[in-house]
Amino acid sequence: MSELSDDTLMSLIQQQDERAFAKLIDRHLTILHAFARRMLGNTNDAEDVVQETFLRVWNHANRWKPGAAKLSTWLHQIVHNLCIDLRRRHRGKTVDIDLEEIQELVSTTVTPEDCLQQEHISREVEKALQELPERQRSAIILCYYQGLSNLQAAAVLNVSVAALESLMARGRRTLKQKLQTIHTGATYEPAT
Predict the structure, then answer these.
(1) What distance in Å separates the CA atoms of residue 114 and residue 108, rounded to the nearest whole number?
(2) How far apart are CA 43 and CA 100, in angstroms?
(3) Is 119 exposed, middle or buried (0-12, 13-18, 19+ CB in 10 A)?
(4) Low-confidence residues of the chain: pLDDT under 50
């Protein structure tokens, strides 16, 4: 099963092949979970979104059209839409940032002071990322964290490549401004 392409796995899943479905989950679970966690800011919601994504794949496998887009792009699009839906349902509620996950990213070979500094920076970057408008956050996460090409990320967001690049430029600019205020102590005020 491991040598089968995503298209072949989806063809088998359309025939209710559970082994193919398990292989597809194994192949895409980690990257989709990382994407959802970055979009939502915590592990528990990310797990729920990814679980719902794979349920939708199983229940609606017949909607997959080989050649229309890469399967990974289609899966990212499902996760993205579910994340946006979840964030809209929770609008106005506070979002807990998963500090345990951030701490796991910090190397254990650094000094405790370096570790604290890195943890602080990671927390601030994660917080600033969560404060970006949805589409800017999505564009940055898809391209920088998920490693999707501009063309693939544009397909996930259902925008042109030019629009995606504009979203990323605005997002990077806002992140830079927000993170600069942390170091200077100035108050961040968005450009009008």
Answers:
(1) 10
(2) 9
(3) middle
(4) 94-99, 101-102, 105-108, 187-188, 192
- 19: nearest Cα among 8, 30, 31, 35: 8
Q: Is the separation of the CB atoms in 13 and 58 below 8 Å?
A: yes
pLDDT for 87 equals 84
Chain-centroid distance of CA 179 in Å reads 21
- For 70, counting Cβ atoms within 10 Å of its Cβ (0-12 exposed, 13-18 middle, 19+ buried), the class is middle
Distance CA 126, CA 143 (A): 16
Q: What is the pLDDT of residue 169?
A: 92
Question: Rounded distance, CA 161 to CA 180, Å?
Answer: 28
The residue to which tokens 């059209």 are assigned: 65
| CATH-assigned architecture of domain 1-96 | Orthogonal Bundle (1.10)
The 8-class DSSP code of residue 186 comes to P
Residue tagged 């050649």 (tokens)? 67
H or E element, residue 95: none
3-state secondary structure string across 45-66? HHHHHHHHHHHHHHHCHHHCCC
Q: Which residues, other chains included, contact 154 with Cβ-Cβ below 8 Å and sequence gap of 6+?
A: 160, 161, 163, 164
